[in-house]
Write a structure and sequence with these properties.
Layout: E1 12-21, E2 40-46, E3 49-58, E4 63-74, E5 80-83, E6 95-104, E7 107-117, H1 123-132, E8 134-140, E9 151-153, E10 158-161
Parallel strand pairs: 1-8, 7-9
Antiparallel strand pairs: 1-4, 2-3, 2-6, 4-5, 6-7, 8-10
């Protein structure tokens, strides 16, 4: 069932599902400027709170899945704008951080982040997500060197769809 808005321009709820595959492993060795880590995990970072993560998943899991409740509304530029507790950045530059950390006695020690660029989602896909209430991202979580994925992630490294 598609979400309904009561007034034009009112936000509708969109569930953003991030499906990660090909995780790099719990142990990521040294090399190529990478210091190496022994208990690697990944989670989604809350906006403005780098130490607050949801869905922390071991780096050797078969897959990682996160579901984030977001609000969708028309943006000033005419594109659908997504906001929510796990959506970072300003209008026209929204993204979600996947934070990689080494989990030890002191907790989660972040060492790397991947920036999933919502701003790079096709405008038609975003509009469809606002109609259906669902947006799905699929991506591999290991970079070409075998390390945890980092930096800006845009298509074709990530596939965004709305049913």
């Amino acid at each position: 069932m598609a979400p309904k808005s009561r007034t034009p321009g009112a936000p509708v709820t969109v569930t953003v599902t991030i499906e990660g595959s090909d995780l790099p492993g719990r142990v990521c060795g040294e090399g190529g400027g990478f210091p190496g880590y022994a208990n690697v995990h990944v989670g989604v970072q809350r906006r403005g709170k780098p130490g607050e993560l949801t869905g922390v998943t071991p780096g050797d899991a078969e897959r990682a899945v996160w579901e984030l409740e977001c609000a969708a509304r028309p943006g000033a530029d005419g594109r659908t704008d997504l906001t929510g507790p796990y959506v970072q950045g300003g209008p026209g530059d929204r993204f979600v951080y996947l934070s990689w950390g080494d989990v030890g006695p002191a907790g989660f020690g972040m060492f790397r982040r991947a920036k999933l660029m919502l701003a790079a989602v096709d405008p038609e896909v975003l509009a469809e997500a606002a109609r259906t209430g669902r947006l799905t991202a699929r991506l591999g979580l290991t970079d070409a060197k075998g390390h945890p994925l980092c930096a800006r992630v845009v298509p074709p490294a990530i596939e965004w769809t709305a049913p």
